[in-house]
């Protein structure tokens, strides 16, 4: 199993951010240790997700990555997003059909995401028992979960202050 990376500063601010120092190097190391490649396109998609203010959607990525000479096709971007999801480098925001970077790549964890409905800021919270309770209650009723998506929406501290 690949060693976890130090948690990078998450792209949770109201302004676009750059990948945290070492975040892309961490992604490359995790992929190498797992025997998979972080190709130039996969790296570019991951960089774009890190730089995005809030949630990024697949078609926004297609537009940003395409040029007149080299258009990027939707299936290519969706395959790339599937790869990044499988490697635990990004999370899918189900309610918005978009993506954000994982703040703890390489660490097995249940993810709780809170999304500001005004500015779109996303924060990844550490599981404090909610995901564990969901698994336990599902099992108690004979249901085996394949995956969990726990999202909350509301107003971030900055938007509440405005």
From TrEMBL:
Residues holding Zn(2+): 116, 119, 156, 159
Top-level taxon of the source organism: Bacteria
InterPro entries per the UniProt record, alphabetical: FUR, Fur_C, WH-like_DNA-bd_sf, WH_DNA-bd_sf
Key words of the record: Cytoplasm, DNA-binding, Iron, Metal-binding, Repressor, Transcription, Transcription regulation, Zinc
One GO cellular component term noted in the UniProt record for this chain: cytosol
Chief place of localization: cytoplasm
Cofactor mode of binding and number, as noted: Binds 1 Mn(2+) or Fe(2+) ion per subunit.
Gene Ontology MF, one: transcription cis-regulatory region binding
Biased composition (Pro residues): 1-10
Bilayer-spanning residue ranges: none
CDD domains according to UniProt: Fur_like
Cofactor(s) this protein requires: Mn(2+); Fe(2+); Zn(2+)
Region annotated Disordered, chain positions: 1-21
One annotated GO biological process: regulation of secondary metabolite biosynthetic process
Recorded family membership: Belongs to the Fur family.
Known partners and oligomeric status: Homodimer.
UniProt protein name: Ferric uptake regulation protein
Gene behind this protein: fur
């Amino acid at each position: 199993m690949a060693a976890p990376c130090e948690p990078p500063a998450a792209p949770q601010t109201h302004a676009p951010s750059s990948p945290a120092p070492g975040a892309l190097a961490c992604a490359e190391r995790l992929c190498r240790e797992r025997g998979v490649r972080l190709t130039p396109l996969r790296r570019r998609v991951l960089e774009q997700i890190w730089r995005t203010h809030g949630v990024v959607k697949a078609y926004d990525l297609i537009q940003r990555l395409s040029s007149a000479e080299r258009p990027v096709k939707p299936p290519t971007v969706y395959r790339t997003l599937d790869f990044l999801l499988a490697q635990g480098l990004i999370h899918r925001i189900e309610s918005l059909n978009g993506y954000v970077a994982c703040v703890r790549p390489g660490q097995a964890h249940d993810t709780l995401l809170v999304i500001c409905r005004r500015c779109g800021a996303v924060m990844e919270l550490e599981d404090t028992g909610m995901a564990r309770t969901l698994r336990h209650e599902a099992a108690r009723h004979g249901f085996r979960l394949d995956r969990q998506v726990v999202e909350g929406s509301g107003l971030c501290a900055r938007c509440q202050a405005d």
